[in-house]
Amino acid sequence: MRVYHGSSLHIDEIDLSKGRWGRDFGRGFYVTNIRSQAEVWAARKGQEAGTSGVVTEYDFMEYAYEDDQLKVLRFDSYNEDWFDFIILNRSAPRNQVHDYDIVEGPVADDQISTRIFLYQSGILTKQEFLDELRFKKPTHQMCFCSVLSLQMLVPVDTKFDAEIMLISDSLIAQLIKKEQWSDMKAVNFFYSSYLYSLLINPSTEYYKKTIDDLYELLLREL
How far apart are CA 8 and CA 45, in angstroms? Predict the structure, then answer.
């Protein structure tokens, strides 16, 4: 999955110590799969620093969801569990109150933050807060909280990315031809495969293998 980080400068190396306490999902490195959202973050950070802001792109290795070494928490919507977790983190401005490696879910933007303040002040009940979120436009964020979790983020290199696209197209074409799959089935299988996660990670050097060798590895996943 392609994800984006908006900042005042291009991120060459992720430093978790620069993360701020008391954020939605705690201290960590934040990204989103919504580019327009990252562009807003970049513009805001750039304005604060006197720059135009930069969006840095990464590929997130989705097999992280199944990795036994990683503790992952996911919220699929604005719900009570998400709300309680946000409050928990925002109430601890100098401590990490959870031990998750990766946390994913909606964003508590400026408008929501105002409503959280009203809740904490006793002006708004939890149910009133949640009722107002039913029609909220979808947002997305992921927080990488540990050094181990950062291994699931691979910086996007434009030249490398183009090469991977050519390899991917070739492997998908073979699935369609040899396995007689539909275009949709071949595409969905390939991009959710473990092989693809290895292929887009330059350090594995899987992109140097022949198409035949890669296809054989792909078939083993079947």
Answer: 5
Total residues belonging to the chain: 222
Query: What is the model's pLDDT at position 208?
Result: 92
CA distance 82 to 30: 16
pLDDT, tens digit, 9 for 90 and up, residues 124-141: 888 888 887 776 778 899
pTM: 0.70
Pair of tokens at residue 122: 């006793």
**So where are the chain's domains?**
2-155, 158-220
Q: Which amino acid is at 84?
A: D
